[in-house]
Amino acid sequence: MSTVPPSALPTDVRGAIRRTAHALVAAVTLPELAQGALDEIRVALGLDVVALYVPLSDRRPVLVRVATATSSPPLSLARERLVFDDDAWRLAVQGDAPLVMHERAEWLVEHPFAPPADAWLLLPLGTRAQRLGVVIGGAHALPAVNAGAAAVLRVLGDLLGAGIEAARLRRELERTAVERERMRLAADVHDGLAQDLALAVRELALLDSEPSPAVAKASQARLRAAVASAHRTVRAQLAGIIAASALAGLQPALEELQSRFAQRGLRVTLSGDERLPDLPPEVTAVALRVLSEALTNVELHASGAAVSIEAHSAGGRLSLVIADDGPGFVAGPPAAGHFGLLLMRERAQAVGGALLVDSAPGRGSRIVLDLPLSQA
């Protein structure tokens, strides 16, 4: 390796490390932390572009981009996703030092930048036993990495690795909170809702036996009270679920909703942007309520249908498209007693959004929910 020119190293190495460490403490999200560290790495080696990628899952070496730092104007853009095969991945992350490439190296992975950089490097993060992610940087004239530059990169990489691990721990805490909420919900259903429904079933059986008018009147009163109590319990639990999901963020809330309906037998697929921006809780709650209502309608009126959910964000707006291959319906004014679509549209409009419904008998249905990324 050749020696890195002094100008390729940061003039204030301690300052670079201190600023990155401070970002680790102050950052709310991993992208916020990564941005500062990537800026320091880009300046340290005079890179045109540098990006942080983390594994999409533990099963395959598929990496998704978390943050990017570029020169101004940007000369290259980092790809959203990188896919390694198993052998290439082991080769790429086998050492602790950066892997420097002076070629396109498509035998290793599809070139990380477009247009392709003349040279690029890959810095593994974490331990050899557990790779937390990689930093990949590109330049038209990438200097060799000497011991001093490698040491700076390793320290900044360790800080980034700590940030990735902290983000994972936060996610685990969110999942733990969801599990606690499920247990609480199960207890509330057992203690309240199940008893109300059992009482309602007994009263219906009594009314079927054609009791005297006085007994029937008393039974009807008890039945109305049980149904009203069950209704209050359901509304309270749904409000709690939606509030908890909204606070956890849109992406995990969508995944949770998909999983819940899939467990109930509905074939649901979720696609679109790999990372969705955080929305105000009120807007997230509307998105989840409308989506839940749409999936419930498919469950009730299109049994066996497959449902796809696409989520995209662009231009300050969030778009959710829910489509199914069920029997469809006539999309018009609500029939008597069926105001679900009307309520969904009103919820969307309340936060500055809109709801479009496209359906006809025999060709399924498609609902498009458009919401602002900030509260109206």
Structural account:
The protein is α+β, with helices and mostly antiparallel strands and 376 residues long. The chain has 2 domains: 6-170, 2-Layer Sandwich (Beta-Lactamase); 249-376, Heat Shock Protein 90, CATH 3.30.565. It contains 8 helices and 13 strands. Helix 4 (147-208) packs antiparallel against helix 5 and helix 5 packs across helix 7. It is elongated, with a radius of gyration of 27 Å. The N and C termini lie far apart (56 Å). Residues 1-11 have low confidence and may be disordered.
Question: In summary, what is this structure?
Answer:
Helix content is 48%, strand content 21%. With 376 residues, the protein is an alpha+beta fold.
Note the main attributes of this structure.
Beta-Lactamase; disordered N terminus; alpha+beta; Heat Shock Protein 90; 376 residues; elongated
Write the layout of secondary structure elements.
Blueprint: H1 13-26, H2 30-45, E1 49-55, E2 62-70, E3 77-78, E4 81-83, H3 86-92, E5 99-101, E6 113-114, E7 119-126, E8 131-139, H4 147-208, H5 213-248, H6 250-263, E9 267-272, H7 281-301, E10 306-314, E11 317-324, H8 340-350, E12 354-359, E13 365-372
Parallel strand pairs: 9-10
Antiparallel strand pairs: 1-2, 1-8, 2-4, 3-6, 5-7, 7-8, 10-11, 11-13, 12-13
Helix pairs in contact: 1-2, 1-4, 2-4, 4-5, 5-6, 5-7, 6-7, 7-8
Could you give me the name of the CATH homologous superfamily of the largest domain?
GAF domain
C-alpha end-to-end distance: 56 Å
Q: Helix fraction?
A: 40-55%
What CATH calls the topology of the largest domain is Beta-Lactamase
Number of domains: 2
| Range of strand content | 15-25%
Order of helices and strands: HHEEEEHEEEEHHHEHEEHEE
Total helices: the number is 8
| Count of beta strands | 13
* Strands side by side in the biggest sheet: 4-2-1-8-7-5
Overall, the morphology is elongated
**SSE-based structural type:** alpha+beta
CATH class of the largest domain: Alpha Beta
Low-confidence stretches: 1-11
Largest beta sheet, briefly?
6 strands, antiparallel
On the 0-100 scale, what is the average pLDDT? 77
- Radius of gyration of CA atoms, rounded to a whole number: 27 Å
CATH architecture of the largest domain: 2-Layer Sandwich
